[in-house]
Amino acid sequence: MASRNIPLGIWCLQKCSTETRYRILVLSLTFMAYTSYHLSRKPISVVKEVLHQNCTLLSEDEWKPILTPEEANETCWCCYKPFDQANAKGLLGGLDTSFLFAYAIGMFFSGHVAERMNLRYFLTGGMLLSGLFTALFGLGYFWNIHSYAYFVIIQIFGGLMQSSGWPSVVTCIGNWFPKGRRGIIMGIWNSHTSIGNILGSLIAAIWVDDDWGWSFIVPGIIIAGMGLIIFLFLVVYPEDVGCAPVNKKKDTHSQEEAISLRGALLIPGVVEFSLCLFFAKLVSYTFLYWLPLYISQVDPDLSNKKSADLSTLFDAGGIFGGILAGLIVDMTSASGLTVFVMLVFAAPMMFLYHLFGNSSSFLRIALLIVTGFFVNGPYALITTAVSADLGTHESLKGNAKALSTVTAIIDGTGSIGAAIGPLLAGLLGNSWSHVFTMLIVADVLAALLILRQVFNDIIKLRLRYRAEYKSLNSDTENGSKPLLQNCDDE
């Protein structure tokens, strides 16, 4: 009788092995952790629309109680100081750059630190402090702070704290899941990036037109709360709970030595994929930080909230792009070729979106989804499955502690590109055509930088299929001989 009252989810868990249960737990916790990281990064792209806007487009009901008609004709009377200046787009781009350069610098150090201390403590501390600095940005609105230096300093410290996340969560996944199954698992798991962006946009949009400070404070509370959950439940190593290690069998963690920066760079493929990610992430993060503003400017009839909501379609396309890329890599083991093909399709899709994205609602939605699919697919694959595979490369002889450093190098290099892209977009903001030209050029360079990996993948695929073809012919011949011999005997 008691078994009938067991919830379906618990019944399923009881049917799983202990190791599978822990894998589900680790996968879920790291997914929610990094969702909260991206959720707390997204508000700045939404709030840009009100920090500097064309105030003459506001309705009479919004200005009549406080202004004369002459004052209401001022283009930027409703902008938030100091972003009411002519160079406001440059100032906003500076906020992005401050955060992302600090994030990139912190990434190179966080990988080393993560290898030398308990990852659960490291990740918890990073999430709590990330929440603090995210909330402090929003509190600047309620404290009536108009100092540009204040917001820049908050962004710098926020970027440094956020660099704790990626090496930690990828290392945890690499510790629990074997190499041959990482592509599709990490493709699905990496949807946390897009889901975090979507949730961040939707949450920030709730208060963007009224009290935009809450657009930062609420995400700050969410990531800090998630940090406490990580502290209470995350298991970093399978051995810690009596499960068999994935990468190699070891008695204690101290038997492994942390890899040097030079040693990590010598792993085949690390340099090429790092440089490729530099340009791929430049493209992806320019969309991340500027897409809502672009949508609102090319179609002034859309409200700030509607523009933020529409920008989530780009991230929705990215979810499917990452999953499909991971599935293809699992089937072919050709990560370089998969990234290259998606980058090749991304360039014309960006051109088509810029050219026709405002022609109709249907085209806008369709092109946003497809462009996100091809832009975020390669970025998602390199930062997850490729990083994890390189971090457990056969040349490392199963040293799991190298994974944090390799992940930090690849994503850190990509983060430098992520810092440059939004900065250039801010400087070129008066001409969106120039911005899209920059993005297309960066995409092409990303594809060219992994040509060696593409050729290697093609050679491996040819050898693999040739061997399978010979094996199939051999089996057919061996199977037919006894049959002929039996006929002769008869």
Describe this structure as you would to a colleague.
This protein has about 500 residues and is mainly α. It is built from 20 helices and no strands. The radius of gyration is 25 Å and the shape is globular. Residues about 250-255 and about 485-490 have low confidence and may be disordered.
Summarize the structure.
The chain has helices spanning 8-15, 18-41, 43-51, 60-63, 69-72, 88-115, 119-142, 148-162, 165-176, 182-189, 191-207, 214-233, 261-265, 270-298, 304-332, 335-356, 361-391, 402-427, 432-448, 451-489. It has 490 residues and is an all-alpha fold.
Counting DSSP E segments of at least 2 residues, the number of strands comes to: 0
Structural class: mainly alpha
User: How far is the first residue's CA from the last residue's CA?
Assistant: 65 Å
Residue-averaged pLDDT? 81
Low-confidence stretches: 249-255, 483-490
Number of helices: 20
How much helicity do the residues have? over 70%
Q: What would you call the shape?
A: globular
Largest sheet: none
The percent range for strand residues is under 5%
Order of helices and strands: HHHHHHHHHHHHHHHHHHHH
Q: What does the radius of gyration come to?
A: 25 Å
